[in-house]
Structure formats: C-alpha cells, structure tokens
Input
Amino acid sequence: MDDRPQIAIVGAGLIGRAWAYVFARGGLTVRAWDPDAAVRDDLDAQMQAMVREAGGPADLTGRIRAVATLEEALVGAALAQENGPERAETKRELYTRMDAIADRETVLASSSSAIPASVFSSGLPGADRCLVAHPVNPPHLVPVVELCPSSETAPATMDRAEAIYRAVGQVPVRLTCEVEGFVLNRLQAVLLAESLRLVQDGVCTVQGLDDTIKHGLGRRWAFMGPLETISLNAPEGVADYMRRYGPTLARLADDSARGEAFNDSAAHIVAVAFPDTATPAAVRARTAWRDGELAALDAHLRSRASKD
Amino acid sequence: MDDRPQIAIVGAGLIGRAWAYVFARGGLTVRAWDPDAAVRDDLDAQMQAMVREAGGPADLTGRIRAVATLEEALVGAALAQENGPERAETKRELYTRMDAIADRETVLASSSSAIPASVFSSGLPGADRCLVAHPVNPPHLVPVVELCPSSETAPATMDRAEAIYRAVGQVPVRLTCEVEGFVLNRLQAVLLAESLRLVQDGVCTVQGLDDTIKHGLGRRWAFMGPLETISLNAPEGVADYMRRYGPTLARLADDSARGEAFNDSAAHIVAVAFPDTATPAAVRARTAWRDGELAALDAHLRSRASKD
Output
C-alpha cells in the first residue's frame, strides 16, 4: 500500500494536466478523470511530452493514471482538483455528484478563476469541504494558488488544502471571504485599466507601458511584492512612506481609470502592438517562449531563496 | 582630447551617485557637482564603495570627477542629470541658473518623481531642452527611465536624451505629455490602493497579498509587461481576451479602491507586517538585500534577453 496522499484530477485539459504535473512532481499519486474518453486515452502521452518540455523527472508520469470514471478518481483521494468548464450550472451539477461520491474527508477544490465556491457548493451536505483553489496558468511554472472559501467552508478544510499545496511546492494564499476576482484578478484589473487608459490617451506606447513594468516595477515585484516594496521606499519604513507619498498616491488613485478603459479602441491599440499573437498558432508559439522564461525565472528565484 | 559625451551630475546624493555610476559604467565621462563641499569631497570614496558592492569595473571611478562649481560640471556636457531637492522653487532657481550657464545644446534632465518639467522650466530661454528623466531607485540596478516633456520640450531634446540613456544600457520610456505621477507611479498607485484596501478589509494578509504578486503576477511582469501578458491569455490574442474577460475586469475596475485606501489604519497594518523596517538602520540593511536581489535578477534577465 502506498500511503502518500492521493490526488484526484477532475477534468484533464490544459489546467488539469498542469495540476497533475504539480502533484506528481511533489511525489503524490494522481488519478485523473475527464468526461472525454479521447482526453483520458491521450493523457499519458501528454504528460510525457510535458515532462520532456519542462525537464521534469522521468518517473513523474508513473505517478499519474487516467481512470475511466469519476468514482475511481475520487475514492481515497485527499484532495480533488476540479478543472471543468467555467459555467455555474455545470459546476453545480459536478459538485453535487462529487460531494455524493467522495469520502467525507476529501477536499473538493475548484480551479475556477471567476466562480465563487458558494455558487457551486452552497447547501450541499459537504459544502464545508468545498473551496476555490485558483492557480495562475500554468501552475507548474507559477506557484501561487488562491484559496477562496465560501461562508460554509470549514477552517479545517482550508488548513488541509493549504498543507497539501505547500507540501508540493506551491504558495497558497488564504482569502477569508468571497470577493469577486479573488485577490489576483482584482490587482490585475486595476493595473490593466490604468495601462489601457494611458495607451489609449497616447501618454506612452504599448511598448513603453510594458517597458515601465518589466524594466521597472516588475523587477521588484518578482521577488518582494508591492507592500514590502514600499516598506523600503522611505528612510523610516512604511509609516514614513505614507506620510511622504500617501497624499500624492491618493490623488493618483482618485484619478485612476475605471471599467470604461476596457473598450474596443483600447483592445485594438494593444492588438496592433502584438501582431505576432493574432492567430492561435502564433499565441501557442509565443506561449511556449513565455513558459520557458517562467521556468528559467522560477529556477533563478529558487536559487536565491536561501539568501533571503 | 576625449570625445566621449560628457555628463554633468547636479546633486551628488544617493540618486546622483547612482546616475554617475550608470553613465561611467556606460563608458561616458562624468563631472559631478553638489552644493555641499563634504559631499563633493566624499564622492570618490563613495563611488569606490559602490563599485565594490555592485561588482562594477574598477576603472569606472576614473571616469567620474567631483568639481567645485556648477559651471565646471556643465561646460561641454551633452546632458545634465539633476538630482536636487523635490521643491518646486528650489528646482526653478536651479534650472534658471543651469539654463544660463550650460551650452545651448546641453540637455537638462531632472530625476524628479513628482515635479513636472513645466514647473521648473516654463518660460526659460532653454525650456525646449529641459525634461524630467525619472529613474527607479536605484537606476544602476533597475534600467527604466521615464522621459517626460513639458509642452515646450523639443522633440530633438527627447531624441538626444533617449539616445544617451539607451547608449548606457538604460531603457528610456517616452511620454508625450505632462501627466501627474508620469506612468510608473500611476501604475504603482492603483496597485497599492487596491492592495491596501484588500488587507484593510481583511480579505488576505499583507504576506498573502505580496505572495499573490511575487509568486504570481510578478513572475510574468518581470519579463513581459501587463499588456503582452494579456496578449497570451486567450487562444486568439488580445481581442479574444477582451471579449472573454473585459466585462469582468471592467466590473472589478469599477469597484476598485480609491485614494481613501491610503489611510493611517492601512499604513499601520502594513507597518506591523514588516517590523524589520521600522528604523533607518533596518531599512538600510533590508535595502542592501533588495539591491543584491535586483542585481541578480538583472543579470538573469540580461542572460535571457538573447533568447527573446
């Protein structure tokens, strides 16, 4: 008998396979189910290709097995990572089934980026073991995972989920309540709104905007986050920073872009700046480049972590 | 005679010395003036210490000379980088003097993070050769520099400034008009406002907020910027992304934090999370760590640049 915690992957598309990779890389055994038989049949070949691309250990795929039924995936699992379609009714049906099948102690976690846990779990007998565990794509190269409970999710569920993600090398961030966009997409939304407004107003080019982040603020945010950043930007720390710069920053925030920045004209300006991403094949090629950079950056940051 | 472009550093404090380092590292000769004789006398020792810390070439300091008068710094300079106090009247007096002394073709650039060029140059005979060239601190480790003209700044001035910064390895971003906060601090302000609101509302901890960026979005923004990021986040590029996610992001932006997020309570919550930055000595120690990480990240990113 293998006593390593077992993980169920429910939905074995792009995100589901990346999650299978994360858990298997972390030494756990994985059973993956997908409603599409072709996806199940192709899983092993897909995982072997991922291992080759990402340079993972060859024995990783030996810990991942495609199974023919949801029941086989869930039985005995410590945690189920669900990666189904982003439709509320579909998720609700799926969680009703999963909750009926899974052992009482199995954590049921959704990769959803937009559907809060209450939508698919409220009122279920096992609503207390349901949550959203929202990754960044692809989770095997970007470690953060947002743990977002509903009001019914038990603290013990959050504890167990956090321990499992941390054990396989991810960085879980616990939210305390349901909030639209969770944390990550709220932060992305405000940065994008202001960015789109600035390029639409012609203050700078799309390239200039991206340069300001990637050769400027992004250099700090890659290893210290925006709040630690400001703790070092005044001689006497954060309180000093807020006294010096708070009023100016408040004025800038009051004047910042709102939802109307997400308009067709702004989309067009950005699309024109990235002509190499106008077709699915081009997006895939550039995404492969991005993933190579993410892997290299992850290796760099891990090599520095001991120096913190 | 040395025909390398010569740079004048006006104000040789922390930022002025970092600029001297940047230009000398790029092979240019630097004459640095500061109104404080003690600062001038100490310059060579300070620059040698910087070279040791940053591992720069030993001959770098040979290209930097402290001079006793503003005149000696400015004569023959292709560009003057001014790093005086952030007070409008002080800057206006200084630019009136600099404009009277400097050769007609010398570019006069201010490191100001908050004072637009019109405030210190409007109406001067040489207003057309004045601009703000706003760095990130420290500029020898973070390459972006925002070039911010007033309505009187000549396009030829912007061209010359851009060429000089680029020649020494910085990444100049040209703005087209005066806008409060330029680009970088507008982007920082919106991200900080939403971050402060989320931790103040208890949605996540300060650590969790920073983790969401540094182990999530910051991993992309360190090498691709927020707009190229979204160009890869839908199968058919930016237009596809905006159709899929625009309405949700617009709703999040409409609901985002405003200036009131910069309040004492939020400052307190962040300060408590970073007890190691409560004194100037502690801030300096942690800043040294940050600068080591910035240098390592810069080296990593430069080693990858050929693979773009």
Remarks:
- The CA atoms of residues 206 and 274 of chain B lie 9 Å apart.
- The longest helix of chain B spans residues 280-305.
- Chain B has three domains: 6-174, 184-266, 274-308.
- DSSP finds twelve helices and eight strands in chain B.
